[in-house]
Amino acid sequence: MKKFFIPLFIVVVIGFSGLGIARLLFGGGEDTWICANEQWIKHGNPNSPMPQSGCGEMQSDWQSQTVNEIGVTFKHPKKTTFRKEIAEDAAGIHSAGFFVEKEGYTLYGIYQPNKEATEIDITKAKTEMDTTTIKDVTIAGYKGIEGLIMGPKTRYITILLKNNRLFTVSTIPPTQQNKALTDEILATFIFQ
């Protein structure tokens, strides 16, 4: 009987050690400070102290953008560049996208108004994500999920179901600092 439990115990200890190491190496992005409603909110167990600035100061160093094709208005730092891309033909708009960029950071949003979606599509999207990073989110009244997609196009992604269409916002590279900036931008979203 001992011959069975000792190897089992060793396998369990090694497994939990591996999970702990993976959490330290790859799971840091969920432990951060998030600016929401002009207040810093603790998200997880961040290693860094609460920032003393940058939250609630959006009026002076942030600017507003509206993407009518998506029906969204949001704010982003003036030190970033905004651009939008619309793909349309005689049949109408196939996709509406926008980018907020600066060196070392890209946020991009994509909305496909001609492609219907359901909760099933949200569930399917979870299969591409690192399961330890998946969270339910609500942004400006729309429900969805967020998580880290691993692979050749590793990115942090937020997927919302907006009027039976998928609206995604991705962050690359998916660092803790970039994710925190994206969360601040998402907190300013207003949908028409």
Give a structural overview:
The longest helix is centred in the N-terminal third of the chain and has 25 residues, at 2-26. The relative contact order is 0.15. It is globular and about 70 Å long. The protein has 4 helices and 12 strands, in the order H-E-E-H-E-E-E-E-E-H-E-E-E-E-H-E. The strands form 3 sheets. The chain has a 7-stranded antiparallel beta sheet with strand order 5-6-7-11-10-9-8, sandwiched between helices. A 3-stranded antiparallel beta sheet has the order 3-4-12. The chain has a two-stranded antiparallel sheet with strand order 1-2. The chain has 192 residues and is of the alpha+beta class. The model has no long low-confidence stretch (mean pLDDT 84). It has a domain at 60-191: 3-Layer(aba) Sandwich (Protein Transport Mog1p, Chain A), CATH 3.40.1000.10. It comes from Candidatus Gottesmanbacteria bacterium RIFOXYB1_FULL_47_11. This is DUF4367 domain-containing protein.
Query: Based on the structure, what is the oligomeric state of the protein chains?
Result: single chain
Find the structural class using helix and strand composition.
Answer: alpha+beta
Radius of gyration, in angstroms, nearest whole number: 20 Å
Largest sheet, described in full?
A: 7 strands, antiparallel
Number of helices: 4
What share of the residues lie within helices? 25-40%
Q: What fraction of the residues are assigned to beta strands by DSSP?
A: 35-45%
Question: Taking all residues together, what is the mean pLDDT?
Answer: 84
In short:
This is DUF4367 domain-containing protein. The chain has 4 helices and 12 strands.
